[in-house]
Structure formats: C-alpha cells, structure tokens
Design a protein that fits this description.
With 575 residues, this protein is an alpha+beta fold. 50% of the residues lie in helices and 13% in strands. The protein has 18 helices and 13 strands. The strands form two sheets. A six-stranded mixed barrel has the order 3-4-9-6-8-7. Helix 1 packs across helix 11 (319-355), helix 2 (25-54) packs across helix 12 (370-397) and helix 10 (306-314) runs antiparallel to helix 13. It is elongated.
C-alpha cells in the first residue's frame, strides 16, 4: 500500500505536469500527435494479432483439438480414407474422441427460394469433439451414422434466422437439400464457426459417394481431441505405429504413408501467422521511431528548463526527485497520446478491415476488445518511460553551478551529445524500416508480374447447383450442364465458358496418383501424384491457357472414353 505522503507527492507531480504541458501547447500538440500515431498504428495491428493468433478458439479446451493427416514423401499433408479413419478411431488410445469431416455443397430449395450453401458432412462425434452443443434441438447420435438412417441436418444460426425466421419450432421441421427432405435436428450457436463458415451439417456415412468407402481413396479430414496430458508428439508417435500396422495389412493402399498431427489453430491460421507478425514488427519499429522523436523534443525542451532544474537542485531537490517528476510528465503525455491513439486505431482498423482479404481466417475476432485496450494502456506507460528516461537522466546529472552558468548560453554539451545519439537511433530505425518496406514493395511488384499461366483479368467464377431431377444419370447431368453453358454464352460480353470442379489458386487440393502406360504401380500411394481438374472441352480456352503440344479437348472426349461416365458422376457428387 502506498503511504499518504507518497500519494500526496504523486498528486502534486501530476498537477505540476498538467500545468507544465498546458503552458506549452505547441510542444504538447506535436508530441501528442506523434505518440498517437505510433500507439494507434500499434493498437490497430495488435488487434489483428490478437484476433487471429492470440485469441483462443471458441471451443471447449481448444489446445487439445488437433487434425490428423496422412503424409508421404514429397506430400506433407493428405486426407485420409474412411476405412483408415475407422481403424484409427478403434485402435488409437491418445484421443478422447475423433470425427471424420468431408466438405460438401448443398442446394437448399425449401423453404424459400433456391440457394447454394456451403456444408460439411461429419460423423456423430463432431460437436462432442469440439465441446459444442446445439443452441436449439439435439446433436447427432450414433444412430445417425448408420447406413440408411433417416436424413437429418444441423443448421447455422444465420440460416435459421434468414430462412426460418428464427422460429423456435424449426426442430423437427424439414429442409430440402439436393432434392432430398432432411429433418432439422438442431440449430448451432451464433458464435460457432469452423474452418469454412458452413450453413449445413449432415451425417457422414460409409455408403455416401463423397467418401467412396474405398481404402485407396483419400477424401476426408479427421478431427480429434487429445486426452488430458497427451502431447501432439506422443499422439503422432502412436498414430504412426497404428499406420505402420495398416501398411502391413493393406500394403496397396497404405504403403509409404505416415501420420502428422497438427493443432486446430495452426490449421485455421495457416501461413497467415508469419505475415501478421511481420507487419506487427514493422509498426513496432514505427512506435520506436515515434518514441525517439518525442525523446528528442523532450531533450531539446529540457535545455530550456535547465535553469529551473538548477534552482530546484540548489534548493535541495534530489536527483531522484527530479527524475520522478520528469518521468511523471512524460508518462502523462504518453497516456494522453495513447487515449488519442485509441481513436486513431478505431478509424485505422475500419480501413484495415476493408483492405484485408475476405477469406482471412478469424477476421471476425478483430476489434478493439479489452485485451487490445490493455495492450494500448501498457504500451502508453512503457513508451512514456522509454522516451522520458533519457531527458530525465540528462537533466538530473547536470551540476548545479554549471547548469546555472550555462543555462543562459543555450544547450549544454551533454544535451547535444544525447541529441546526436537519438538522431543516430532514429536514422538507424528509419533505415531498417525503409529497407524492409522497399523489399516488401519489390516482392509485391515481382508477384504482380508473375505469370500464373492463365488469364487473371477477364475471368470470373461462380458455383452452380443443379436440380436432382436433372442429375439422375450421367447423361442427364451432362446434358443439363451443356444447356446451362449454352445459355451463359448468350450473355452479352461472354466469349467462352465451361465447367470445372476447382479453380486455380483457391487453396483447394484434389490430387491423385497417376502413371504412364498400362502397367499399374505396385502401390498407389507410392505412385507420383498430380493435381486433378475435371473440366469441359472449352476450359483451356476460357482460362486463356496456351496449348504447348497436342490438342485441346473436344466434345467427343466426354463420351468416347469409358472413364468419362464415372468422372461425370464423381464431379456431380462433389458439387
């Protein structure tokens, strides 16, 4: 506890600091604006760091949530097959629960107008693994995972409000998805977000086309919750032993396959973490430059006040007392600048959110929340001590007689030396910042001029869902797509169009093994892998991809090969 004398001294220092600052409005305004810009930019950028990287995931015990991926030489992350998932679930001892996940788009046709929705098919342990319960209704159960079970669905809070009018009696009602009637089992909480912001969750069953049910087909992601006390390293070691046993039992599908365990947060944030921390480091240098600027102003101002400090020292004021007074002034100045910096951060953050990519992970968490305000407060105090310490020590070190004699002649040699050092520090920090900015701009310029191999200026893409009444057979699916493409070509300004299951650079991965010739390799997993795009005959023309050798596809290629029927069905099942 602070004594009454200490509190009284602190109150006098604060009152004197405020009087001193108000007597010099020009200096105070310049210093406040400098501090506000430095702290404001740091607070805005820290809100991005806190929202994306530091904020815990909105799940129960998020640090225990992990993804399990297969890998092989040259391919660090692969999805798993459903049979492998079942073996992992039954054999592993490192996890409390485990769930399979397969992304699947749905066409909602009732209630209301038709809408193409992002969806995820999951096994029944999905919400239990995350520690989430539906806001209304029930979770999936083991009975929903079995073949031929009645179709049920969980819907997002957004879909519930926009399409069902936030009706509490929605549970037990129906929604038509992909032409099939699903019973709504429950509504998810408003705060629930998992990877893609899906609106529909349905059970993932072994008989569904999306997972094929074959051990050699890797089509699902696996989410798991670690048991208390089990590390990711221990879980990875156990899972690799489990996978080694599957290799011996099913060599054709599992030879050369390993397991990698990654945290859910790492999977969500991905490569964005490094970029965000780099930008935060850059704005931190800006704050240091601002502190050096204010320190220079205070040091120059201290030469004007040299006579004041000399008189106070002659009257018996100790060096510690004067240092405390000057640090109080700089801290008051910094806190006032920090308060103004919060306003700068608020406006800057609004502009920053508009400039950030739409698919930036966890962008909904970015804002001036309590941790950001606490960071701004601590930064303000630290900055006040940092830029006030050098002038305070310089003023306190001066001898009384020399100070009184030299105060009328201008700056002392000590203050000039300190100013030189601060100028050197400012120059060094500015040089680092400008060098980094130059390298960043050069990298952006180089990336801008990279040729991705297709036309990036005149191509648009959108998702399309077809009515199930047109897709009962591969021939019907093909005919419907052709009719759709013919109508699009009639739109003024359209030169070419076609369909594909995936567009380049969208982050999707649809890889599979390939080989040249008729002899199939001993193990499909050890065969070379390639990224596959299912397309129509005009895809290359539409994308502006040049032909280096051979010929383009023709409409005959869609029906002349025996594989085209299978590919058409597979394409439809993944849309």
């Amino acid at each position: 506890m602070l004594g009454s004398a200490t509190l009284d001294t602190l109150a006098r220092d604060l009152r004197y600091s405020l009087r001193t600052l108000t007597r010099n409005p020009g200096f105070t305004c310049v210093a406040l604006l400098t501090i506000a810009l430095g702290i404001g930019t740091n607070s805005a950028m820290f809100s991005v760091v806190q929202g994306i990287i530091l904020a815990p995931l909105p799940f129960s015990e998020p640090d225990r949530l992990v993804f399990l991926w297969q890998n092989r030489p040259g391919v660090p992350q692969l999805e798993a097959s459903y049979p492998n998932f079942e073996d992992w679930e039954h054999t592993s001892r490192s996890f409390d629960s485990m769930s399979a996940i397969a992304f699947h788009n749905f066409d909602l046709t009732s209630p209301g107008k038709a809408e193409h929705l992002t969806g995820i098919r999951v096994t029944s342990a999905f919400l239990a693994t995350l520690g989430v319960k539906p806001a209304i209704g029930r979770d999936f159960g083991a009975s929903d995972d079995v073949v031929n079970a009645p179709p049920v669905a969980l819907i997002s809070d957004r879909l519930w409000r926009e399409r069902f009018g936030a009706d509490q009696s929605v549970v037990g009602g129906s929604a038509v998805l992909d032409g099939k009637s699903y019973t709504v089992a429950g509504v998810l909480p408003p705060s629930f977000h998992f990877l893609a912001d899906a609106d529909v969750f349905t059970p993932l069953r072994p008989d569904m086309p999306a997972i094929y049910g074959e051990r050699s087909v890797d089509a699902i992601a696996v989410l798991a919750s670690l048991k208390p006390g089990v590390t990711m390293g221990q879980a990875g070691a156990e899972m690799n032993a489990v996978q080694l046993d599957l290799d011996r039992r099913y060599p054709d599908a599992n030879r050369g396959v390993g397991i990698v365990v990654t945290s859910l947060k790492q999977q969500i944030v991905g490569d964005v973490k490094g970029t965000v921390l780099l930008l935060f480091g850059a704005v931190s240098i800006v704050l240091l430059i601002a502190c050096a600027n204010v320190a220079s102003l205070l040091l120059a101002r201290s030469t004007v006040r040299a006579r004041e400090f000399g008189i106070r020292a002659a009257l018996g004021a100790s060096r510690g007392r004067m240092v405390r007074q000057l640090l109080t002034e700089s801290t008051v100045l910094s806190l006032a600048g920090g308060a103004l910096g919060i306003a700068v951060a608020w406006f800057g953050l609004r502009a920053l959110l508009l400039a950030l990519p739409y698919n930036l992970p966890r962008s909904g968490n970015i804002g001036l929340h309590l941790p950001v305000l606490a960071f701004s407060f601590l930064t303000s105090i630290s900055a006040g001590i940092l830029f006030g310490l050098a002038p305070a020590l310089q003023s306190a070190r001066a001898h009384v007689q020399d100070t009184l004699q030299k105060s009328s002649r201008g700056a002392t040699s000590g203050s000039i030396s300190s100013l030189r050092r601060l100028v050197m520090l400012q120059f060094a920090l500015t040089l680092v910042l400008m060098t980094g900015a130059g390298l960043l701009l050069r990298s952006i310029r180089n990336l801008w001029h990279v040729n991705p191999g297709f036309d990036t200026q005149h191509v648009i893409s959108f998702k399309v869902g077809l009515s199930p009444s047109f897709t009962h057979t591969p021939a019907g699916t093909r005919e419907t797509y052709q009719q759709l493409l013919a109508r699009i070509r009639q739109v003024p300004g359209v030169e070419a169009d076609d369909i594909t299951n995936m567009v380049p650079l969208n982050g999707g991965d649809n890889s599979g093994p390939f080989w040249i010739g008729t002899a199939q390799p001993t193990s499909l997993q050890e065969a070379p892998h390639a990224l596959y795009f299912w397309t129509g005959p005009d895809y290359l023309k539409t994308m502006g991809i040049p032909l280096l050798q051979g010929r383009f596809f023709t409409p005959a290629d869609q029906v002349a090969s025996g594989r085209s029927e299978e590919h058409t069905s597979e394409l439809q099942s993944r849309q």
